[in-house]
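Lecture 7 notes: from sequence to structure.
We start with the chain below.
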Amino acid sequence: MSTTAPNASPAPRGHDPLAALGSLPGVPDAVDSVRKAVDRVYGHRVMRRRSNEVTSEAALRAARGSAALSGADWALEEVRRRSDFGAAADALTVGAALRLTAEAGQLLSIWRQSPVRVLARLHLVAAGGAGASTGVDTAPAMSVAGVAGETVGRPRLAGEPVVETPGPESPKPLIEAPFPPADEVAGRLDGLAELVIAGSSAPALVMAAVVHGELLALRPFGSYNGLVARAAERIVLVGSGLDPKSICPSEVGHAELGRAAYVAAFDGYLSGTPDGMAAWIGHCGHAVELGVRESTAVCEALQRGAA
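Predicted structure tokens for the same chain:
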């Protein structure tokens, strides 16, 4: 992928490969619609007093949605009450998603300086590696999720397999496109990192969609690539200032739109065509708007005293 998109920071000198994506047909409308939706929920009266509660609920619902896309479609209350995320593939997936939503907010300051380091950390956390609850150490660790310890927290090497959801009765992977070879993964990760670090004039939605799509395309780790890609999208949306309190969980919207729509939109990203890219960005925008709707409902419930 040669065209990709960061957040709303000042445009760098020289070539800005993401800027063109922001002007594709339909994309400016999607960006404007997302901005208006986000502004509305941030203006809700509950946000003035109880924003921390809304953020906590958004994180829980984001984890549930991301896990559902990866094949572990648990009811929200089941995710809320469970404390055991043991050896079954679905439980491991839900546990990984919960850890990632908790961790993502701790990595914002590092993202713009070292995106690859953050991605490695996210994989370590998802795979349940030793030391996953503190710090940003990305050294190899033994995994509790059935992933070989030496493969956790680093991009895959040539010949290493990808088992997207480790554990017994692992579900069929959602994304079945061919895996790029390890040397291509390394080069494209470096290219993505350069774009993030350089910044772009492209809107935050565009950068978030490209980071998400590129990580799905690469599947750079031995497991949990979908969860990591969606967590990275969240980091971009929050770190850009579009959703600074992390109350607009796009993962909720992606799950609500459904696995088939997610895969179809991602096929547009893989195509690399203007129409395909615009469709993927628009899909990600719709997901953010549905996340906004979810958090608006949380605000209304808190206002009524029902949550």
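Points to note: The chain has twelve helices and no strands. The radius of gyration is 18 Å.
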